[in-house]
Amino acid sequence: MAWIYLLVAGVLEIVWAFFMKKSEGFTLLVPSAITLVTMCASFALLALAMRSLPLGTAYTVWTGIGAIGTFVLGIVLLGEAVTPLRLIAALLIVAGLILMKLTSTS
Q: What's the predicted TM-score (pTM) here?
């Protein structure tokens, strides 16, 4: 169950990061509210996952899901640049996540 909590927490991190961008520095009410609610939910689920997963594994996977998800959303929805070096960096993050999962004892 911890891995499910962690996966959902990571997805919520993507949501709050995206809506933080859309909040224009917390000047728009709805995106700001979505940011804060999803941020709290993401942290709560991360905390639940950390009950049985090692700290380093849980935090690394959580931030990795958020990093890759926001990277993809930035490209797809916000028109951010796709360059070979950015793609390589993203692939290295994914490789690190896979290795972290494979070496986890929980």
A: 0.87
